[in-house]
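User: I'll paste a sequence; please echo it back and then give the predicted structure.

Assistant: Echoing your sequence first, then the prediction.
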Amino acid sequence: MTDLSVGIIIIGDEILNGQVSDTNSGFLCKEFYSLGIKIGRISVVQDSVTDIANEIRAMKGNYSYIITTGGVGPTHDDVTYEGVAKAFNTDLVLNSQMVDYYKSYCGNVTGNIDKNPQLRIANIPVGSEIVIIPTGSEEPFKSWNGYPIVKVANVIILPGIPELMKLCFKEVKKLYFNDCLSELHNRKLFFNCNEILILSALNKAVDVFKESVVFGSYPVLSSKFYQTRVTLESKDEMEVRKAEQFLRSSLPENCIVDPVLATAGLDVYDLASNTNDSQFATVLKSSIKVIEEAFTSHKPDSLFINFNGGKDCTALLHVVAAVWMKKFNTLPKIRAVHFKSNDPFPELQEFIVTTIKR
């Protein structure tokens, strides 16, 4: 990990009352983890100026940066700017750059906020840094003339709408965290037994590598493929390898599960949700939906995949297996049909036979 640390504040009554699920913190954690930056704290607070201010005060001296999401807008419950201002004992000011930006959406608004409440969104803390984020050419943002991000000291204020927040963070990452990349090496091991049975071996490994490797152990109740997941993380790839080898040498026999079988289903769904390639994500999500509907409408043993050994049907085979594993939580038993040509390539036939055996 780098020496930088980040605190995250998720703002919104809709999160706390369960009307909306928070996905922003999960996204941000993954993004910062990929940069080798430690997330020290995540808080969820209501739309309250005092609560926002108190949380920022508690964090601002302890973390390099604070990221807030939500509470940015012109309505009565959009109070993040006010909360940030209070945290730094400063005032709000109607910022001319922000006013000019929002004129393109609100018309030629003038006067004060009482007469034109839409100007509340341009009322930001004194001394703010403003960055206009390009919004690109994709819907629904292609008609936008960028989007303004406000930064006050070490607090970066992001919108709460997940799609817009992700778009903004791509640019925020380039602006403030581009030089922070510190590759973090990790390994995951999956076990077909309760973590208590590997506790002795795990504790030995933790003690031997406590200065260089971070271990995590997580019981899993929702999978029929494994019961425990152990992670190893370090900035030093060689240390991770040594730690894994040491741990493996101390474990009971036949307790480690093939990672492909352990996580294949979740990996495909995770790829569909988190890939940066929006076009690919759309195609993959559509494919998953079709296969899910097929498994809902038909019995699994009445469905067949046409397998000719090509790249497209091999990819489809993996998606079908992923949906099967997620839906039935068992190893897939997929039926396939192959139409053999009169003059098949030997390599292709060998691949098909190998795939069947697997």
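The radius of gyration is 26 Å. The first strand starts at residue 5 and ends at 11.
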